[in-house]
Structure formats: structure tokens, C-alpha cells
Amino acid sequence: MVNGQLSSVRVGAQRERPGIRAAGIRDVARRAGVSVATVSNVFNRPEIVAPDTRRRVEEAVEELGYVRNESARQLRAGHSRTIGLVVPDSSNPFFTDVARGVEDTISAAGALLIVCNSDNDPQKERRYITLLAEQQVQGALTVPVRGARSAAPLLRERHVPVVILDKTDRSGGVCSVAVNDVAGGRLAMSHLLDRGHRRVGFVGTGHDVHQAADREAGARWAVEEAGHDPDKLLTVPTSQLTVAGGTQAAAELLAIPARKRPTAVACVNDLIAIGLLHELLRRGVRVPDDIAIVGYDDIGFAQAATVPLTSVRQPRHQLGARAAQLLLDEATDDHHRHESVVFEPELIARESSGAGTVATAATNGSKTPARGRSAGTRA
Fold first, then answer.
1. What is the pLDDT of residues 218-247, one digit of tens each?
2. Within the chain, what is the greatest distance between any pair of CA atoms?
3. Class assignment of domain 181-313?
4. 139-142 and 175-179: which strand pairing?
5. I need a surface site. Which of 13, 155, 230, 311 has the fewest CB within 10 A?
6. What is the pLDDT of residue 353?
């Protein structure tokens, strides 16, 4: 049905002729020769309407330029057809891809997506959650700033379905979809250690972000597994989880005497890795010959970097799509059961670690996911 496109055209025409009354649902019913209830079913439950009847209603809608009164429908239904998504930073390509996965899924269900940026600010996050609840959204997805269930109680009080994104929740009180970041950090560091590096580092610490902490923990785990002291892993803090943070990290690394400087580093995300890589090259440092680099997320820019970036890949679109489907299921199914879905990441090896283009799955130490769950969490 093309009602949305036609409505935008006809609304413009009616505004040019203010004396003409906008068509109502009763006008559509009269033109199609059906009841008002049938017109309502065409919009809300088209599968129960006979094809010929549905066609007549759609033609009447097009001819009259009918625009549904969404506010009235929302009052009757008790909620809107809008889904809210609260992320720390939509300019980060990781969250852009996750949001696209959400949008593709809810769009197919006839819903509208609103994306809000919390900027990793708990107060801003709560303000957006409150506004979404007041707007009677059909459901909300949130990447929590602190704590896996920070938004859940407020939304639950208002009977708004919620799914936690990028953070595992095992309580059973809310659905969650995440990637196994500990396994991802371990995978990145193991790759460097397996290539013979012994002076290794982890870039991107110093942030109150649970995904970063999990990735660092995984890196330390790999160091310990290789028989080294994990407490001696060099960590490089950054002020931001951005390309600028990577540029800053390059200066920190180059300030270390060459004989003590790491020959390989794992980064908390691809943005930092790309900033680091570009600044090292600008300063005459060879990658991977002098310093090998592994990123995290495998965003689109990773493969297109000056030296193609080895990265831990997360199923970003799939992450968003699965979370959206769980949210829609909860919003429409009275027998919905909460799930905690965990995806496993994989390593995509490219030139920045001196490894070519071999793809390796995260299998070492990974537990087989429960039936119905995907195998793998994020910064």
C-alpha cells in the first residue's frame, strides 16, 4: 500500500486550497462502499480483509488523499507506532550500523524509529528515556551508560517494552542482545601473541565503559594464557574513544624508548586504531613492521584504511535486527519470554597485523550458546 507517499502529496495540495475539508475515514468508507470498521481493518489488520475489498479501500484512500489521524489512533491503542533507540554516540559507525539493523526490522513492521544520543551521560540518558515513555512509544532499545538495567525500571513502570543493547542481562527481567567482548579482546591479543610479539599493549583504557573493560580483560586473559604476567601488559589511556584518541595514543607510544616500546597493540575500537595507524605512518613508523595493530568492530573504514586494518568483527546489523525483533515480539505477544542473546565475534586478519586476509572465528574457550541464541558484547 502506498498511503504514506500519497499522503505527503495530497496534504500539500490541500494546504494550497484551505477551503477544502480534509477527507475522513467515513469518506473513505463511503467511496469504497464498505464500513468504517473495514477501513480500520485495512490499516491495522489487512490480512483479515478480502483482497478485492482491500484494493477498493486503498484506491479510495489514494483518490481522496486521506491521511490517518495518528494521534487519535494512538489514544485508542494506548501507544504509538514509534520505537525509541538510545545510543551513546550515533556518529560512531558501529552504532550507525546497529541502528540500521533496528530500522530495517521495525520498518518492515510499519513502525517509526527515533534515535537519541546519550553522549555517555547518565542524566541525558534518563531524560531521553523519560521523554520516550511520555510519548507512549511502542517500545525502547537502549545502550545503557552505566548498569545493564538503568532504563528498564522507568519503562516497566509505564508498561513500555524494553531491550538492553550491547550489554548482557541474565536476570530474566528484560531482553538483552550483546556481543562477547571478553572473547573479542582475548581473540585480538591472542592473534598478536601467536604472531610472535612479546612486548604488547592495549590502547584505549581510562573510560567508564563496560565494553572497554571487558575487552581489556580478554586481552589480559590472552597474555596470561601465553605464560606472561598480565599485570605487565602496557595500557595506553585515551581521552576519547575516537580517531582523535588514537592520534593521542600514537604520541604516547612514541614517547616510550624504542627498546621498551610495544611491537604490537590491540585497540579498544576501530576509531582509535585508525587514528593510531594514520598518526604512526605520518611520523614515519612502519605498520606492521615496527608496530602491529588490531582494532575492534570491523567498521567499513577498517578495510579501507591506508594499511588495511585487522579487526575483531561484530555482527552490527544483526545485533540491531535481533534486538528489534525481540522488542516487537514483546510488544505484540502476551506469551513473550525474555531472552539474553549473545553473539560471538570473529577476527578479520589484514595487513595491519602482518597477517594478510584470513578470517578466523572466535572458537578458543568460547562456550556453545544455548539453543535459540546466537553465539558473542561492545565500546
1. 999 999 999 999 888 999 999 889 999 999
2. 86
3. alpha beta
4. unpaired
5. 13
6. 96
Residue 303 CB-density burial (10 A; 0-12 exposed, 13-18 middle, 19+ buried): middle
CA dihedral 23, 136, 161, 94 (to 10 degrees): 90
List, for residues 59-68, the tens digit of each pLDDT value: 988 888 776 6
Q: Is the pLDDT of residue 333 over 80?
A: yes
Terminal Cα-to-Cα distance of the chain (whole angstroms): 40
Is the domain spanning 80-180+316-344 CATH 3.40.50.2300? The answer is yes
The Cα–Cα gap between 158 and 194 comes to 51
pLDDT at 76 over 80: no
Q: Where are the domains of the chain?
A: 3-68, 80-180+316-344, 181-313
For 338, other C-beta atoms within 10 Å of its C-beta total: 14
b/e sequence 168-190, b meaning 16+ C-beta within 10 Å: bbeeeebbbbbbbbbbbbbbbbb
Task: Measure the CA–CA gap between 126 and 95, rounded to whole angstroms.
Answer: 19
CA distance 288 to 170: 40
The answer to whether the CB of 341 falls within 8 A of the CB of 322 is yes
Residues 250 and 236: their CA atoms lie apart, in Å, by 9
Cell triple for 174: 528484560
Q: What is the DSSP string of 209-225?
A: -HHHHHHHHHHHHHHHH
148-184: per-residue pLDDT in tens?
A: 456 677 787 778 889 999 888 777 788 999 999 999 9
d(CA 80, CA 138): 6
Give the CATH number of domain 3-68: 1.10.260.40
Burial (CB count <10 Å: 0-12, 13-18, 19+), residue 323: buried
Looking at this protein, which amino acid is placed at residue 284? G
Site of grid cell 593521542: 248
Chain centroid, CA 361 distance in Å: 21
pTM (predicted TM-score): 0.73
Q: Are 138 and 102 in contact (CB under 8 A)?
A: no
Cβ distance 352 to 287 under 8 Å?
Answer: yes
